[in-house]
Amino acid sequence: MSIPDVSSYTARLEAFQKSDEERNALFKDLVDQYKQLKERYDEKQGDYDNELASRRMWQQRASASEQALTVQKQVSSSHNFVVVLVDGDGAIFQDYLLSMGKEGGAEAAHQLYTTIKEEVKAKYPDAISDWSIVVQVVLNLQGLAMKLASCGIISSPTELVSFGRAFGLAQPLFSFVDVGVGKERADHKIRETLRLYLPIAQCKHIFFAPCHDNGYLPVFESYRRDPRLTLIETRPAEWGFRELGIEIKSFPKIFRTVDLPSGGRMPPPGLPASPAPPVRAPTIPHNTVPIMKPASPAPSTESNPPTTTSTNGSTTTSSSWATVGKTGVNSKTINIAPKKPPPTRKFVLLNAYDERLDTWLPDTDKSAELRYAKRMASTGKCCNDFYLSGKCEKGEYCDYKHTEKLTPAEVLVLKHKARSRSCPQRAYCRDVDCHFGHVCKFGKDFCNAENCWFASSHNTDTEPAKRYFEDGSEEWLQSYLDKFGKA
């Protein structure tokens, strides 16, 4: 028996080992690839799950948004309204309406409602069947009533109250709002109301009157060419409003197209009579406000000389101390010393519209101006409160001079300098010790300043009508009442 060759087995064994290694490598490669594929699968599965969850979430949100949009459309389509804002101090109703009082207020409301409804129907022909019309007239009721009465348009200021009440009652969404004295009050209320309504989707259109006051221009700047806005022209519109590209309409049957007369034809009825007529100041230059001096007190009856009865029954009058002594111990003691006049009450002047005016100041002396300027250049500025009121709350901590001795002429120069500064409160100021200016002393027609600090007061009525005292009481000037024959 022959023995096989060992080398052949070795070669075959090596071949098997190599085959096993290749098989193991193949298995290892398959396992590695499977792991990678499994990882990619798990990643894709995670992405899929996320996308599925996200899609379902967005589907739910889309469905909810569609429902909310549907509800919103239903709400917005069923609660739409139109707003009409009227500055009643500038857009004034026609005379024939105002003169009718209560009936005129109802008629004005009816005409305005009908006119606005026709305007809106022309702009939105298919969508105004259930739209509401909101109207707000904002004004200084007392001031306008006084002016209308003085012009003879209404017979009594109370007629405007009746007019406004009837105007508000004629339609459920009509309001006649009295904001009191001061143009800024009406302006502020109207501006804020505009800002409230403009962003509201249900507010489909806004009518605004008037468009001759440039103070409202900044409000409309961001709404240029907005089709939801319409300006109502009473007096001719300022160019700034025409530049906005907003539609301008006029309702001449409802609102006046010209200013009220500057002079009155009749007195404002119901004014309280002054107890004593004031002493009139001397004639002063045009557009200046006179100083109204308080009336002299009536003579006292207590200073009359005593009377005595003679033996023959006749009555004699004596002014001697001897006669007084002879009247006996039971006689009343009489003080013949001059009676002290009552202390002068501080006051400020107001016009018929409760706007503060400035008292007249005499012209300054040129030499006093030069002396004052030289003094201020060398020592510094003088304290207004100390020199003009006699007191300064800051005392030694004040930044201005208290130690300089000023002549009366120099004090007058200081008054003029203080008056040239504009009081922050303007027409609202009621401080009897305020030394700042409240109106332009030249007026609109005579002021040549390019940027007058008192430009807003150029149209202020500078005729004094009453005194406002520091205790809050008021007194109509007899000189103002005399003009209407109520002296």
UniProtKB/TrEMBL annotation:
Region (Disordered) residue spans: 262-325
Single GO MF annotation: zinc ion binding
Membrane-spanning segments: none
Composition-biased stretches (Low complexity): 294-320
Domain C3H1-type: 377-405
Zinc finger (C3H1-type): 377-405
Compositional bias per record (Pro residues), positions renumbered to this chain: 266-280
Keywords tagged on the record: Coiled coil, Metal-binding, Zinc, Zinc-finger
InterPro entries for the chain: DUF7923, Znf-CCCH_tandem, Znf_CCCH
Coiled-coil segments on the chain, per record: 27-54
Protein known as: C3H1-type domain-containing protein
